[in-house]
Write a structure and sequence with these properties.
The protein has helices at residues 17-31, 35-43, 46-58, 77-83, 98-111, 148-158, 178-198, 202-213, 217-226; strands at residues 7-10, 13-16, 66-71, 89-95, 116-120, 133-139, 159-170, 230-237, 242-248. It has 250 residues and is of the alpha/beta class. The protein has one domain: Vaccinia Virus protein VP39 (Rossmann fold).
Length: 250
């Protein structure tokens, strides 16, 4: 007797769990070349501030070795910030999408960033040894992972004892009035920007829908703790548009 395939969400649609990764890959294949420009337009430039705050929480040391892993960060936006924070910092970027990685590699060459390397790999099965990194970041990527719990478990595995996990992710706005304004902007403006700037609004409609289906900060904190992390907390930013989630491998 055959069993029904396990289901998950791709935006507002239910799809087979094993099919989601390919669908997500197709989204980022379409937007890779304009990904950072669209981030600027969609967030009105605020994503830069949020990423600066993420790296400020990480606090890489300035004068001693620090090995850092940035996952789902193919274009290097977070990695370059971490790499610039200290002379002994070495950053590995892992992304499942080769087009996003090519954008990041080109940017690294232009900037002369020799302390950032790019590796193609899946957040659910990182091609890296355990207990290797002092820090782990994932910015706006965890909600696109089909099996979030596996990605969190992998983050725990590759961190050293004393290493810190940090995740920057959109969340649902729950402030009166602002929530309706934000919903209107998300539904109307973001896909329209995608059509004009990236030539396709569909990937951005998926991204908007995926934010609404992402767990609340409290529920996501529970998942981080279930993966083994201690001292789990989160900080909401910009009226709750995004949150920085933190945990330690102790």
């Amino acid at each position: 007797m055959s069993s029904e395939p396990q289901q998950t969400h791709f935006g507002s649609r239910k799809v087979p769990l094993d099919a989601k990764q390919e669908m997500v890959d197709d989204v980022f294949h379409k937007v890779a070349g304009r990904y950072d420009l669209m981030n600027d337009l969609m967030s009105l430039g605020l994503h830069r501030v949020w990423k600066d705050l993420l790296v400020a929480k990480l606090r890489p040391p300035r004068n001693r070795p620090f090995k850092h892993l940035d996952v789902a960060g193919g274009t290097g936006d977070v990695a370059f910030r971490v790499a610039a924070a200290g002379e002994g910092v070495d950053v590995t970027v892992v992304d499942v999408n080769p087009e996003m990685l090519r954008v990041g590699e080109d940017r690294a060459k232009r900037r002369g960033r020799n302390n950032v390397r790019f590796v193609e790999g899946n957040a659910e099965a990182l091609p890296l040894p355990e207990a290797t990194f002092d820090g782990y970041t994932i910015a706006f990527g965890i909600r696109n992972v089909p099996r979030m719990e596996r990605a969190l478990s992998e983050a725990y595995r590759v961190l050293k004892r004393g290493g810190r996990f940090l995740c920057l992710e959109f969340t649902r706005v729950d402030l009166p009035v602002f929530d309706r304004l934000y919903a209107f902007y998300s539904d109307a403006a973001i896909p329209a920007l995608g059509r004009v700037v990236a030539g396709d609004g569909a990937p951005y409609r998926y991204l908007v829908e995926s934010i609404r289906l992402f767990p609340t900060p409290d529920l996501f904190a529970d998942k981080i703790a279930e993966a083994g992390f201690a001292r789990v907390d989160h900080t909401r930013l910009t009226g709750g548009v995004v949150a920085i989630h933190s945990g330690w491998k102790l």
